[in-house]
Structure formats: structure tokens, C-alpha cells
Amino acid sequence: MENTKDWELYQQGIEYKNKINLFRNVDRNERFYAGHHWDGVDTGGLPQVRLNVTKRIVNWKVAQVMSDMLSMQFSADNAANYGADMETLEQVAELLTDYSKTTWERLKQDSLNEQALLDATLTGDGISYFYWDDTIDAGGGVKGDIAEELIDNVCYFPGNTADPRPNDKNGPIQPHIILAFRKLVSDVKKEAEYYSKHKDRTLNNGLTKEEIDWIVSDSETQYRAGDRAKDEATNEQNYCTVVLKMWAQDGTIWARKSTQSVIIRKDYDTGLHRYPVATFQWTPRKNSCHGEAEATELIPNNIAINKLMATMILWTMLNAYPKVIYDHTRIDQWSNDITKAIPVEGEISGTAQYLQPQGLPASVQNLFDMLVQTTKDMAGANETALGDDSITKTASGIVALQKASELPLSSNKRRFSQWIEDIGLIWLDFWLTKYSVGRILMIERTNPDTKQDETVPVMFDGSQYSQYTFGLKIDVGASTQWSEIASIQTLDGLLEKQLITFKQYLERQYNGLIPKKQELIDEVEEQEHQVELQKQVEAMQAVLSKLSPELQSAVQNELQMIGGGGNAMPGM
């Protein structure tokens, strides 16, 4: 039982990660974010205070980077170079743009993006891996579609550790990429048996039953991310590490899957033209495939904040309450029980008194406040950014201050946008390569007549356009949070200048901002109706006043008949 070559490369990748302390930092950061600040620490009697400043700042930064509305826009910019029908390829590009929204929703990309950002703040990298899942029902009798899985950076092993990019605009740039997975031994054996009996010689791994039995469980959990990954189910649920190696060969991406001693699936051509892996770093490190995590630099400050608060609490517990001193010759034993009297021999005066303690030194409290504030300021997460004091400011002031606080995150947002672009290029590669049989794509489009979004089925065969190169750019829309603030501010200004009515103001406010908004709109409409009716009455009165008494009497009688008797109009 010799180690496979891919396993040896995997071990070399582990050595590199150990050199940069990646495993230790990832476990500590994940543990600290979860609130386990005192695990394995001898507190020496200090209260175990948990002020999770790190989590607050990390969550805020993740939300800020996620706040922009990103969308993919495909184009046929290079169609003229192929002598192709420009109009047709532009229609295909528009179709791919619309279908990207469908794929985005099917994969739940927003949720995956948020988790990838959190991974980046805690580990330094966000990594997404895409693969073809033959079990997905694509409709119309077609099987197979794109699937996605987030990969921890401790399970990502690029061949060139000095370059963080798997691909560039033109294709793969890594000599190879290895991904490590923990799989059930029973599932891995079933996959190995499937390929050992495969009729296609290019897929048959030629394994014997004895060789398949070499697939056994291992204890490689120390190379997984987080404390919980170290605890796996035992007995029938035994796990082993599976490594997937991918490399570029003859213009496409090839792959091989192995355990420590067995090649489960031998070399096969994926048909893809770029690695199906997208990565981004929270804070890039020069000449390294791994970035620096946000939590890494926050945790030392957070530890100091916890310890300082713990000492303040301990000091308060020991010194905050007055102590009693008494004359032991006249009082045998002191009791604070309010239901019992204290017997005293001789004079009562001077028998006992309270020692009033001094207050907590102001310098200690000031140090604590300064440490918390400085930590947030240095991270760009002050009160204005977090929204703690925004209630005292105008809408325009909120937007200006919060936009200013976002500037330190601009580079993170650009790297995140580039990551989304890398994902879009991977999707494009799958669409043009794997959608080789005509299938029905469900596209959401706006009906030009009804102005409503509708789901439209469109037939598509990617193999017809695989020889063409499509462009992709990421459109960054306005943040929904800031858009709401700006919209409210604009509506307030229009109403103040009387350029819109109060009803128009209410109709354009966001739902939930004003309680019982519809009831208020109904009341406004009723008031407007009464005002309009009063204007009509006054106009009629003005007309009647100009008529002769005979005509006035005739009109009044007619109105009384129409109204069923009585005065037809108030005041007449």
C-alpha cells in the first residue's frame, strides 16, 4: 500500500500551510467568532467575560461588502472577429445575462456569497468550487446541471503557492489544483466499484476487490477547519480523505480522484477550459495564495478588552460594597440578617461602623472605553458606521458619514466583485461546454405590455456557440440600505416644497416604514373626497347666486326631487 502521487502533493501542501500557521489561525478565529474566548485558559478566578467585539465588526464588514447589488452582464464584443452574425450573438449574450439570474437563484448564490465572505474574514480566503451534477433534473428529459460547494482554504492546495489566482481572463494559470474532501468510506467504495465495472475503458479504473478494500478510514481531521470538524461520527459512519487533482492539458481541464492509497477515478477530461474554482482574499499577502483574515488582527485587542472588563468586575465584586468593622469585645458575631437583633454589651455608640470603599478608578474605565473605541475606529467600524448614533443625524448626514466609513472596504468590494466575475466566467464555461444537448432554459423577463416579470422558456444549445468568446462585466448597483435612506430623504424634500401631495408621499414610502400605511392612505383619500365635494358645492352656490330668484327656486325644487326631498345642498 503505497501513497498515491496526488497524496504526496497533498502532504506537501499541508507542510506549506503549517509553515504559515494557517491551521492554528483558522481554528482560533472560528472559535473566537463563535464566542469561545476562554477555552483552555486558566482565568485565575477572573470572571469569564465575553464581549465579542470581533464578531460585531466582522458581521458589519460582511454586511457592507454584501450591500451592493451585483449582476452579470454578458456581451458579444468579439463577434466581429469570427465573422459571425453580430445580432444573433448579441441575442445569445442577452439570453446568458438573463439566465445568470436564474442560475444565481437556483444555486442560492446570495447565501453562498455571504458565507464565503464570512469564511474570508475568519480564514483569509473565500473559495468556491463548481462541478457537474448528473443527478439534477434540468427538465425536458435532460439530466445534469451546475452545482456549487464552498471550500475551506485549509482544503485548497494550488500548485503555485505564490499566486492566489486559479485562472485569469484567458484561462488556467495554476499548474494544478488539489481539493481535499472528507467522505464516507462506504460512499467512496461505491464510487470506486462503479468505475471498476465501467464499460468505457477511458473511465474504468481497473481496481480489484482487494484494492477497493484498501479504502479505509483515516484520522486526518486535524487538517480541517474549525473545532467541530475534529469530532466525527464513529462506528458505521467512518470517513476518509479524498483528494481531487485538476490540471490543464491540451486546452482543457483534466482531473483525477484518489484516496491515500487508491485511485478512485483515473484521469478524465472534464471538457472545461478553466479551473472550476473561484477564490478571493480578504487582505492579500504578497507572494502567497492565502490572504490575511480580519479576525486575526482583532482577536488580541478583544482578549485585552475581555481581561480588562473581567478585572473591573472582579474589583467591583471585592470592593464595591461597604465593609463592617465592629468591637469584638462587645459583639460576639456580626450578622446582616435584617430579622435578627445584634446583642451588645455596654454602650452602643462606637460598637460598629461601615468602611465606605473608594470608587473604581476613572483611569481604568477610561482605558476600557478607549480600547473599545480605538479597536472599532481602526477597523473602520465606529458608531456612525454601525448605526449606533445615526438617530441623531439627518438622512443626508447619515449617507455622507456612512459612505465615508465604507471607503476602507472599497478594495474588499473590488476583490469581491472580481470573484463574482470569475464565477460568471466559470458558469459561461459550463453553459458552452456541458449544455451540449438542447435544453429549455427558464428565463425571467419583463413583459413590455404588462410591465410585469414573467418566466419564459427558451431553447438553448451551448455547443453551437462554444467556439465564440463572450465578454462579461459586473454591474454594481446601489446599496439597498443607502437607496432607502436617499429615497426617504428625496421624498421628504419634495413634500416639504409641496411638489408632491401627502398621498403621493405615502404611496412611495417603503412598506413597514409607516405603520398602517394603507389605512392612512384611505383616510387621506376620504379627506380629499370631502374637500372636492365641498368645492363642488361652493361652485354650484356661486352659479345659483347669479341667477334670477325664479330660476334659483326652479333649480332648488329640481335638486330636491333628485335628492328625495329636503335641502339638496347645504345652506340652500
Summarize it.
This protein is flat. The chain is built from 16 helices and 16 strands. With 572 residues, the chain is of the alpha+beta class.
Question: Your description of this structure?
Answer:
- The chain is of the alpha+beta class and 572 residues long.
- The protein contains 16 helices and 16 strands.
- The strands form 6 sheets. The chain has a 5-stranded antiparallel β-sheet, with helices on both faces.
- β8 (239-249) and β9 (252-258) form a beta hairpin.
Structural class: alpha+beta
Largest sheet: 5 strands, antiparallel
How many strand segments?
16
Give the helix level as a range of percent: 40-55%
Keywords:
alpha+beta, 572 residues, 16 strands, 16 helices, five-stranded antiparallel β-sheet
List the topology elements.
Blueprint: H1 5-19, H2 22-33, H3 53-66, E1 69-75, H4 86-106, H5 109-123, E2 125-139, E3 142-151, E4 156-158, E5 167-168, E6 171-172, E7 176-184, H6 185-196, H7 209-212, E8 239-249, E9 252-258, E10 263-269, E11 277-281, H8 294-319, E12 323-326, E13 352-355, H9 362-378, H10 383-386, H11 395-406, H12 410-434, E14 439-446, E15 453-460, E16 471-477, H13 480-496, H14 502-507, H15 517-545, H16 549-563
Antiparallel strand pairs: 1-16, 2-3, 2-11, 4-7, 5-6, 7-8, 8-9, 9-10, 12-13, 14-15
Helix pairs in contact: 3-5, 3-8, 8-9, 11-13
